[in-house]
Amino acid sequence: MGSMKTLDFRSDTVTRPSPAMRRAMAAAEVGDDVYKEDPTVNKLEALAAEMLGFESAVYMPSGTMTNQVALLVHTQRGQEVILTQGAHIYEYEPGSMATLSGAVPRFVPAPYGVPEPQEIRRAIHASPFQSPTGLIALENTHNTAGGTVVPLTVQQEVIEIGREAGLPVHLDGARIFNAALVLGVEARRVAAGFDTVSLCLSKGLGAPVGSLLLLPAELEPLARRYRKMLGGGMRQAGILAAAGLIALQEGPRALARDHAMARELAEGLMRLGMQIDMRSVQTNMVFAKVADAPSYAARLKELGVLINALGPERVRFVTHRDLPDEAVSSALELVEKALAQRSR
Fold it and tell me: Considering the domain 7-14+254-343, what is its CATH architecture?
């Protein structure tokens, strides 16, 4: 690729810390977070809890850890976790639930990431001859469905089903601010009613590291124990949390541009003849169907565009704050070139 500037559409996790983040990280006041003595981490956790309407928050290295700690807090070994088809907790947290909590997934269909609440009701087991249900988990936005948004009405109905059954309900809200933008509400509305919520700072919000688990105060000591057990006691983590504070305060404002870029990209790819379900293009992701996705992604890489092949016939483009304004038009030119190469 020589000196050609690469356009990285693989994920919104590839963003680099902004100059403001780097300055804040360098100047961060720190202490030992395992003793809850890091003032910058404490400030980040308090801000997240306030923004999402929870009593407490615990800062962790990754979204996988926040999700898996939630499973550990809520479930016992051998219990089932009701998940939507394609849930990140199962698909991209490689075997963690089997290894750590010993929980068993029970999937319900979720077209465009949206489950039918009555399917969740039917999936609840209490028989002594079956694995009992221990937790219901939703995902908003839903990654593998295309970054799609679950309506608040569906979430609320699922939460009520959980309450009736005496079950906790967890939200994998890695991109909860993307969902809030589409729904036209504050993020706390998307988080409302859940027992726990996982929030990523290192995706569209732009922080280099970190996720938060939002939870009631009585569960915080147990969550901190499991974080330590899993190796998540980061000590002077305020250096990282300082960037997280900026991400939480300023990052949501940048998401509208990401969504607009994804829509523009999807429409352009459609004009080039690529197969895209535009109903799934709701936030900052574009999934396209192509023949031999791995080789197609490799051709694009040679031209200077990085994307992920997700399976034999599916590729994903993700827009984010580090892409320049001309990224979509430039990418479309190179996609057209890659398609022409394939047709020769």
Answer: Alpha-Beta Complex (3.90)
